[in-house]
């Protein structure tokens, strides 16, 4: 590692599997920071992530050696993970730490074209787990269907919430993300009680459920996050046939994880079309301010600042970004400039009102338009690229001369 004081990191090139869960638990036990890699990512992107993370090694399943060799920097050890069919338990004392070391490092879209690393400490996830076990949903053990990509922060919430409460975790077959009828089969067959879904997947699941007349009989909680929740007719109709199920709307960027929540229960016909993002979770502080940093009145849209236990400089190797994205509020501590716009209503509920920068969300994925433009600039015949969001799609374009057009289409 270039910085001897940096946390020890281990990259995990693993699909949803028992091996991945065991590797996460082992890393946490040994005070090592997990860097989950999505095998579906382009090789160039994985290479950029690994060069920034500087992991001690890359963990993989048997058969993935060639894939990892194509993306891992030279000199990084690659270890194959196998689980013995039967092996004696070996006690392993937890390495001491103060809760502030990174539990995991995730990489999000960067405006310069290079993904940016975000360190998230133990204390952030522990705070969320305590809140969720006491105030945020099902108490005790629950059968949970893991769905999120392992490179998303929600996957840690799915896995650790279930294991820490003694529940049963069903790992996703990635094909189910594209085959919603098959996911509906799984929810019923496995007796799933809790499900975390990005909004787009929730909408598609509800549409299929209503059309196929499929209503998982044991489902009690659906937690959605990642984009603005919209209670469409399909969502209302599906939950109307799930009278024991509640819909939770969670909000929080990767940098802080979940910081607010709203629960929707009762008659779905009474749910607002665009529900609020709710109230702060335990130990989170939310402020809506104007351009000068002063609080705005209820109902007025402003910039959303996130403070409390989970607000701490987190960008890997980027002191300037840490300086600009975090600000000290006199008497209240450090706050993260989320880049989101919001307002507070007269009941104290926070509402999401969009972004104040060039970041967008596509199917729950954060995407900086600058990263799209940087990728376009790598093409030798493209100059002055630009991009914007058009409904649910990202639309890039560029200025082109007639000779360039002819050369590119001939």
From TrEMBL:
A cellular component term, taken from the record's GO annotations: cytoplasm
SUPFAM superfamilies: Acetyl-CoA synthetase-like (SSF56801)
Biological processes, Gene Ontology terms: amino acid activation for nonribosomal peptide biosynthetic process; secondary metabolite biosynthetic process
Any GO molecular function: phosphopantetheine binding
Boundaries of every AMP-dependent synthetase/ligase domain copy: 9-316
Pfam family, one: AMP-binding
Protein name (record): AMP-binding enzyme family protein
Source species of the chain: Mycobacterium kansasii
Record lineage: Bacteria, Bacillati, Actinomycetota, Actinomycetes, Mycobacteriales
């Amino acid at each position: 590692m270039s910085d001897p004081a940096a946390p020890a990191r281990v990259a995990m090139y693993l699909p949803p599997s028992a091996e991945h869960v065991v590797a996460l638990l082992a890393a946490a036990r040994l005070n090592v920071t997990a860097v989950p890699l999505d095998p579906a990512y382009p090789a160039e992107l994985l290479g950029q992530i690994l060069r920034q993370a500087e992991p001690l090694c890359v963990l993989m399943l048997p058969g993935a050696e060639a894939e990892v060799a194509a993306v891992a920097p030279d000199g990084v050890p690659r270890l194959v993970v196998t689980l013995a069919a039967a092996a004696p338990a070996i006690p392993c004392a937890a390495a001491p730490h103060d809760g502030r070391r990174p539990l995991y490092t995730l990489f999000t879209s960067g405006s310069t074209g290079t993904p940016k690393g975000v360190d998230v400490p133990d204390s952030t996830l522990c705070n969320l787990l305590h809140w969720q076990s006491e105030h945020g949903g099902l108490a005790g053990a629950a059968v949970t269907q893991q769905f999120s990509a392992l490179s998303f922060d929600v996957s840690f919430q799915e896995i650790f919430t279930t294991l820490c409460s003694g529940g049963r975790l069903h790992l996703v077959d990635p094909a189910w993300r594209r085959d919603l009828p098959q996911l509906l089969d799984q929810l019923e067959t496995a007796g799933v009680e809790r499900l975390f879904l990005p909004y787009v997947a929730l909408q598609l699941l509800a549409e299929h459920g209503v059309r196929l007349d499929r209503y998982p009989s044991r489902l009690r909680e659906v937690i959605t996050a990642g984009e603005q929740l919209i209670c469409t007719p399909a969502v209302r109709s599906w939950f109307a046939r799930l009278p024991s199920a509640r819909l939770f709307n969670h909000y929080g960027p990767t940098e802080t994880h979940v910081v607010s929540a709203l629960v929707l229960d009762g008659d779905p016909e009474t749910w607002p079309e665009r529900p609020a993002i709710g109230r702060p979770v335990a130990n989170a502080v939310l402020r809506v301010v104007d351009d000068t940093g002063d609080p705005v009145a209820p109902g007025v849209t402003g910039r959303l600042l996130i403070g409390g236990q989970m607000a701490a400089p987190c960008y890997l190797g980027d002191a300037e970004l840490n300086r600009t994205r975090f600000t000290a509020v006199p008497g209240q501590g450090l706050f993260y400039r989320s880049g989101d716009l919001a307002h507070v209503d007269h009941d104290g509920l926070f509402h999401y009102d969009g972004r104040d920068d060039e970041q967008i969300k596509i199917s729950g994925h954060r995407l900086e338009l600058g990263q799209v433009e940087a990728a376009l600039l790598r093409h030798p015949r493209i100059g002055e690229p630009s991009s914007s969001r058009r409904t649910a799609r990202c639309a890039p374009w560029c200025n082109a001369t007639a000779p360039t057009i002819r050369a590119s289409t001939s």
